[in-house]
Specification:
Elements lengths: L12 E3 L2 E4 L5 H12 L7 H10 L5 E5 L2 E11 L2 E12 L8 H12 L5 E6 L4 H13 L4 E7 L1 H4 L6 E6 L10
Parallel strand pairs: 5-6
Antiparallel strand pairs: 1-2, 2-3, 3-4, 4-5, 6-8, 7-8
C-alpha cells in the first residue's frame, strides 16, 4: 500500500462542506476521472496522476466532500526557480462549482508551500474562467501578472490554442514582511 501524504499533512482547511488536504497516491485515479469529466483539461494517463501524487503531493491539493474528490490542483516547484510554484491543472467537479473552491484551493496550496514568492500557470486565450481565477489570485496578493506565450500551436499541434504563461509575483508572505 502506498504511503499517504496526508498522514503528515492533515486537512489544510475547510471550504463550505469541502475539506482541503494534500493528496495521496490513491487520489490519483479519482483526479484522473475528474480531469476527464471536465472535458476541457488536457488529460494525462492514469499513471501520470498516480506518479504526480506520489512525487508532488507537497505541491498539490485536493478537495473532498464526504471522502469523495470534488476538486484538485496539481503543482510543482520549478527546478531552476525553486521560489516559483507552478500550477499545472485545476479541476472542480460540476457539483462543487460556484462556491469559490478553485480559488480556495489555489490560496491554500500557495500558503502551504513555503519559500515561494511567485506562481506560474499557463492558460489558453479562450479560457476566460481560468484567466479571471488567476487574475483574482494576483489581486488578492497585491501582485503583478506578467504574460507571454510559452508554447505556440507550432509546438502544441494543429488545433491547440497557444499556452500563455501567467507569472504572478513577487508575492510578499507574512514571514518576509517587516
Amino acid at each position: 500500500m502506498a504511503a499517504s501524504a496526508t498522514d503528515s499533512a492533515a486537512a489544510v482547511r475547510a471550504v463550505g462542506r469541502a475539506q482541503l488536504c494534500r493528496p495521496d497516491v490513491d487520489d490519483g485515479v479519482a483526479c484522473w476521472r475528474l480531469a476527464v469529466a471536465t472535458q476541457v483539461l488536457d488529460v494525462n494517463s492514469r499513471y501520470a496522476y498516480l506518479l504526480w501524487f506520489r512525487d508532488f503531493a507537497a505541491t498539490s491539493i485536493v478537495a473532498k466532500m464526504k471522502g469523495e474528490i470534488v476538486g484538485f490542483v496539481s503543482g510543482y516547484r520549478r527546478p531552476d526557480e525553486r521560489r516559483t510554484l507552478v500550477v499545472w491543472q485545476v479541476a472542480v467537479d460540476e457539483r462543487a462549482r460556484g462556491q469559490g473552491l478553485a480559488a480556495a484551493m489555489i490560496d491554500s496550496l500557495f500558503e502551504g508551500v513555503p519559500d515561494t514568492d511567485h506562481l506560474e500557470t499557463t492558460i489558453t486565450p479562450d479560457n476566460a474562467g481560468s484567466i479571471a481565477l488567476f487574475r483574482a489570485f494576483a489581486k488578492r496578493n497585491d501582485a503583478k501578472v506578467r504574460r507571454n506565450e510559452l508554447f505556440g500551436p507550432d509546438l502544441l499541434g494543429a488545433g491547440h490554442e497557444p499556452e500563455i504563461l501567467f507569472r504572478i509575483g513577487p508575492i510578499e508572505r507574512p514571514e518576509t514582511q517587516g
